[in-house]
Amino acid sequence: QSSSIYITLTIIGFFFTGVPGSMVVTWTTFNKTESKVEYSFLGGRHFEMTANGDATLFVDSGEEQRHMYIHRVTLTGLKPAAAYVYHCGSDKGWSDAFFFAALNDSTNFSPRFALYGDLGNENPQSLARLQKETQLGMYDAILHIGDFAYDMHEDNARIGDEFMRQIESIAAYVPYMTCPGNHEATYNFSNYRNRFTMPGQTESLWYSWNLGSAHIISFSTEVYFYLEFGLELLFKQYEWLKKDLEEANRPENRAVRPWIITMGHRPMYCSDDDQDDCTMFDSYVLHITTHKNVEFVSFTGVDLELWAHEHTYERLWPVYGYKVYNGSKEQPYVNPKAPVHIVTGSAGCREKTDMFNPNPKDWSAFRSTDYGYTRMQVVNTTHIYLEQVSDDQYGKVIDSIWVVKESHGFSAWF
Ligand SMILES: *[C@@H]1O[C@H](CO)[C@@H](O)[C@H](O)[C@H]1NC(C)=O
Ligand SMILES: *[C@@H]1O[C@H](CO)[C@@H](O)[C@H](O)[C@H]1NC(C)=O
Ligand SMILES: *[C@@H]1O[C@H](CO)[C@@H](O)[C@H](O)[C@H]1NC(C)=O
Ligand SMILES: *[C@@H]1O[C@H](CO)[C@@H](O)[C@H](O)[C@H]1NC(C)=O
Ligand SMILES: [Fe+2]
């Protein structure tokens, strides 16, 4: 079974100092083997270089207690923007050969992303389009904003294995960056924590990284809901978030990476009608009365907040505290005076898409119940472009905006 391998490529360590990044390759085998990645420049002699790592045993908590080995190998010293070919495994069996481009570490770089949440093993409608576009080189990174596989732990975690094989055709080519959603909660998020490898030391639960002129923060909205797994996680994340935002907001940091973008699974505002979190024109996230309410992140000069969980696409006018703060009536996203929110959870899963409440509030700008995903390009320090792709309409772009900011930060809102 050692050739039963799936691969995800994630980034570790992109720092303000501009030190060229490194990538970590993560895969699974069902017997204990060595962990090697052989790689080379694309076009050169194949597999000239070797990197070694190690494997950790993951025992699923289902009744079969299935054992698997999660291998992690870090590639360092990669040449920015250079293309590489690699495979991974050991002398007991190798994966297919994949290619990737090391990320350009310049703050002038204009990274392109695909982003979505709620992609399942069954009915993953957008998957084919994402596989093709990723392999065509349309994206520098993917942001999967929670809810994987539906659910990774099911069938003694075989659904997790199957899902990882499904996304291998994306995640082996570009960094696949994640945050946890409610569908990962079973057994204390153990499938999520074990199968992914995000930056930092939090088992992928919360972290931040930089690309181009953006500082991207990923956090867990689930710490507000699954208190049985540890109230201390909520406080730990809060303290970390506060510090990370402070650091990103230091004038010397904000000068080079002015965009602060967050991603978290459950949105603050949404206008679905699904008898779930979103029945009161916002999400339970905003009703949680434990102190450390999640909207505090909006109050720290964050520019853009990306969410999923609702199986629809919704774009909001700039909003804070239920109030719209357009840049101007004619150009709401030019120098907006509050964060811009996007809810994009319609990639496709067995729960299908949700319905909208027919009478949205005034902060709701555009809504679609089509399956699809979002593209984003952080063009430069003043411009971000976002567009929504409808998979139902064969890839048609059904919505797009430019967010333009001449100055960033909390003070720019007044
Ligand atoms: C990285 O991107 C910047 C901005 O587009 C470009 O000027 C630079 O040449 C790129 N670096 C490499 C190594 O290609
Ligand atoms: C759940 O997992 C987190 C992350 O590893 C850990 O800090 C926490 O203690 C765990 N909670 C329980 C109840 O085991
Ligand atoms: C925000 O801008 C949009 C687009 O111009 C407009 O329809 C909406 O009424 C504005 N909202 C407020 C509260 O000004
Ligand atoms: C950023 O990109 C936009 C759109 O391409 C362009 O109009 C603008 O001049 C650029 N701004 C800077 C500071 O380069
Ligand atoms: Fe969800």
UniProtKB/TrEMBL annotation:
Class of the enzyme per the UniProt entry, highest EC level: hydrolase
Annotated catalysed reactions: a phosphate monoester + H2O = an alcohol + phosphate
Annotated Purple acid phosphatase C-terminal domain residues: 338-400
Pfam name, any one: Metallophos_C
Domain of life from the UniProt record: Eukaryota
Residue ranges of every copy of the Calcineurin-like phosphoesterase domain listed in the record: 112-313
EC number: 3.1.3.2
Family per similarity comment: Belongs to the metallophosphoesterase superfamily. Purple acid phosphatase family.
Keyword terms of this UniProt record: Glycoprotein, Hydrolase, Membrane, Signal, Transmembrane, Transmembrane helix
Purple acid phosphatase N-terminal domain: residues covered: 16-100
Protein name, UniProt field: Purple acid phosphatase
Spans traversing the lipid bilayer: 6-30
One GO molecular-function entry: acid phosphatase activity
